[in-house]
Amino acid sequence: MNKVVKNVEEALVGIEDGMTLMLGGFGLCGIPENSIAQLVKMGTKNLTCISNNAGVDDFGLGLLLQQKQIKKMISSYVGENAEFERQMLSGELEVDLIPQGSLAERCRAGGAGIPAFFTPAGYGTEVAEGKEVRIFNGKPHILESALTADFAIVKAWKGDTEGNLVFKATARNFNPMMAMAGKITIAEVEELVPAGELDPNFIHTPGIFVQRIFKGEKFEKRIEQRTVRQK
Amino acid sequence: MALDKIGIAKRIAQELRDGWYVNLGIGIPTLVANYIPEGIEVEFQSENGVLGMGAFPFEGEEDADLINAGKQTITVREGAAFFDSAMSFAMIRGQHVQLTVLGAMEVSQNGDIANWKIPGKMVKGMGGAMDLVASAENIIVAMMHSNKAGESKILKECTLPLTGVGCVKKVVTELAVMEIKDNKFHLIERAPGVTVEEIISKTEGDLVVPDFVPEMVL
C-alpha cells in the first residue's frame, strides 16, 4: 500500500484548530522539524500538543509556542524553554506534566488498545491526585489512562513507500509509540526508499501504523548540548 | 574540606558493582561514569533510549541523533543497544536496572525526594525521575547538604512537591555519606577534614551518629 505523499503541505492536510497532536522527539533529537515548520506556516491554533519536551525558544515546538499556537502541552520535561515557562507561569498555556515513562506507556497503550494501566510512578506525588490507587505485590500503583491523538507526527531516519520506518540511534525515543497512537500518523523521513529495500528483519515501526510518509526537505538537526572531549 | 562535585561523583562511583546496569541522572550523577573502579564492568542506561553509553565524542564527531537524557552528545561502547522510550522505562520499572543515581533539591529522613518543581518559580517537569525513583531498588542521591541560603536540604520532611516517597536509600553530599533507614539518616562517612559537628549542624533531619565516623577514602 503506497503511503507516499508529495511534500509536507500534502502531509499535513486536515490538521485543524483545536486538534490534539503527538509529536515525536526527545529534546531536539528526532523531532519532525519539517512538519513543525509547516504548522507554523499554517498558523493552526489552539492545539493540544503531546510531546516529551517543548523544544527550545527558537527551534522545535518552541516555534509554535512563540506564535501562541499551542493551548495545552502534555510533556514530561520542559526546562529548556524560557517562553514556555513564561506562558505557563502566567497561565496562558495549560500544562500537564507527566512522568516520562508514564507518557511513553500512555502513548503505547493508546496505540495498543489498552485503555489504562497501573504504574508505581508518581504514587504519593501531585501526579497521583484524583487517580485510583491499588496495591499490587504489596506496593501502591496509580491508574493512568491511554493517550491518542488526531494526528501523530513522527520523524524517522529511513522509511519505505509502505510506511515502514527505521530510526537512528537515540532519535527513536517517543516516535514508535506515537506512531501507534495517532488516528492519522504522518512520518517525515530523511531517506525514502522503494518497498523491498529495507530489511523486514530490522523494521522498527511497521507500516500499518503510518498513513502518510514523505521525505523531509531539509533537516537542520540542531544539537542542544554539544559536549565533546579533546583528541 | 568539603568535597567538590567531582569528589561526590568519585565517592558514589565506589558504590558501583560488577555487572550492574546503572542509570545516571543529569548533573553530578553524570560525572560518576568517569570514575568507575578498576576491575569492574558496568553498563550505563540512559532513559532516552540507549544502553552502553560511552564517553563524549571527539570534537567534530558529534551526532545530533546520539544524545543522553541530558541532551548531551555522547558515543556508545561496543555492544550498545538503542530502543524506544516505552522499552526504556520497561527496563526501569521492571527493575532490570540495578542502580539509579540522581540529584535532589530536598531529601527527607523517610526517604522522600523532591527534585522537580518549586511552586510559582521553577517548573521544569519530572522527566523520568518519578518512574526511576518509584521502581529502582537502589537509589543514591547526589546533592549539596544545604541550599544557597545555607538552609539544610537534609530534612525531617520535604517542603517541595515530592518526586517519590520512601525510596531513597543513600545520600552523598559534599560533607557526608548517609544511609536512610528506620525513618532516620545514619551518618556513615564524613568528607576528608569535615567534622561530625559540622554535619550535625547542617542536617535538619534526625541524624544517627555512631561513636566513630570514618573519613571517606577517595
Structure write-up:
With 231 residues, chain A is of the alpha/beta class. Chain A has six helices and eleven strands. In chain A, strand 3, helix 4 (82-89) and strand 4 (94-97) form a beta-alpha-beta unit. The model of chain A has no long low-confidence stretch (mean pLDDT 96). With 218 residues, chain B is of the alpha/beta class. Chain B is 16% helix and 26% strand. Chain B has helices at residues 5-13, 28-31, 85-93, 129-135, 196-201, and strands at 21-24, 43-46, 50-53, 76-82, 99-103, 106-108, 113-114, 117-118, 122-123, 139-142, 154-155, 170-172, 176-181, 184-190, 207-208. In chain B, the strands form three sheets. A ten-stranded mixed beta sheet of chain B has the order 4-3-2-1-5-10-12-13-14-15, with helices on both faces. The two termini of chain B are 13 Å apart. Chains A and B meet through helix 4, helix 5 and helix 6 of A and helix 3 and helix 4 of B.
Labels describing this entry:
heterodimer; A: 231 residues; alpha/beta; 8-stranded mixed beta sheet; 3-stranded antiparallel beta sheet; 11 strands; 27% strand; globular; B: 218 residues; 10-stranded mixed beta sheet; 3-stranded mixed beta sheet; 5 helices
Quick take:
The complex is a heterodimer of chains A (about 230) and B (about 220). With about 230 residues, chain A is of the alpha/beta class.
Q: With helices defined by DSSP (H or I, 4 residues minimum), what is the helix count of chain A?
A: 6
Q: What's the overall average pLDDT of chain A, rounded?
A: 96
Instruction: Point out poorly predicted stretches of chain A.
Output: none
Largest sheet of chain A: 8 strands, mixed
Give Rg of chain B in angstroms.
17 Å
Gyration radius of chain A, rounded: 18 Å
Strand content of chain A: 25-35%
Parts with pLDDT < 50 across at least 5 consecutive residues of chain B: none
Helix proportion of chain B: 10-25%
Largest interface: A-B, 59 and 55 residues
Q: How confident overall, as mean pLDDT of chain B?
A: 96
Distance between the termini of chain A: 49 Å
